[in-house]
Amino acid sequence: MGILEDWGWDARWAEAFGGDAAKGLFPARLIEEQRGLFQIMSEQGVKSARTTGKMRHTAADRAGLPAVGDWVSAEAVPNEKTVLIRRILPRRTKLSRKAAGETMEEQVIAANLDTVLVMTALNADFNVRRLERFLTVSLESGATPVLVLNKLDACDAPGPYLEQAKIAAGSAPVIAISAKTAAGLDALDAWIKPGLTIGLIGSSGVGKSTLVNRLAGNEEIKTAETRSKDERGRHTTTHRQLFILPNGGILLDTPGMREMQFWDSEQGLAKTFDEIEALAPSCKFKDCAHDSEPGCAVKAAVAAGTMAADRLESWSKLKKEAAAEAKRREPAMIAAAKKESESAARKLKKLKEKKS
Ligand SMILES: Nc1nc2c(ncn2[C@@H]2O[C@H](COP(=O)(O)OP(=O)(O)OP(=O)(O)O)[C@@H](O)[C@H]2O)c(=O)[nH]1
Ligand SMILES: [Mg+2]
Ligand SMILES: [Zn+2]
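# guanosine-5'-triphosphate complex -> structure
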């Protein structure tokens, strides 16, 4: 197997790369990003890479710029060590959130993940509402989420945590592990496979980097103790990086995330709360908000005790948040679409000029 295959290259990527070789470009995977500086892996090994001014100019938004996990068409520059990223091959999955701050911009956390491990610790970090939020974003990405409850070794009574996590997880698997003692890690084998890319997300201090080190069989990545007062981490990992594990799996470590604001999350939300979606067709009104409408099947389930009231409450809050976000996103989407059509018009004009 070649180096590209080690990093997840397959026949479908080769097809997407298509005729770019004839243009003097070579395929590469973006394996690390640190403050806008990229490292890419190709048949020539690791190289620093940067985007072209043209790409930055024509990208409709930030999501049009490369993210860790992307496959790209790159070009060597004579007498320069840094190569140019010319094109991003169409993403199979895309883990996005709203960029922090006031802007209405999409931030792609990672591209082309097959599996997302949503990690939390079995201590004061554990928060069902946060799990639902992370799960929604993971499902929206198109990847398969798995809930990972870490620090099993330091937890006296994991039972109640597991119960709550299973409700939050819906149909996603829940596994309890200890990155420290390696207990339960076998359960991850189903997702850690050659050529498959697995991303780790969760708040700071839950043990993401410790797990990467454990699976990699070394202590390459820095980890740091959490504050004993509230188990909060110290934001030890500061960039996103892909690693190849001894068994061939491709693992992405990410910095702990304080915020996970939604970006285009309606499908993810429907999947996260699939038991509500399943009942909705039985409500009297087609557009039932499961709030105070008569004949609501979801409310009936809560009254009958077959659904937890806080589950419905949580869905309702997140649904409102997603709807508000979608509304605020509208102008940005229109602007992006305009920029894209302008760029297409420019291309067309150039083509016509060439012909004549
Ligand atoms: N007891 C116990 N401690 C663990 C376990 N996994 C990680 N830790 C400890 O938790 C602390 C934080 O671990 P990290 O791996 O740095 O956490 P992280 O999620 O990478 O944090 P950020 O990089 O800040 O996002 C370290 O002191 C680890 O030794 C575990 O399974 N059990
Ligand atoms: Mg870390
Ligand atoms: Zn209803």
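# post-check
The mean pLDDT is 92.
The longest strand covers residues 26-34.
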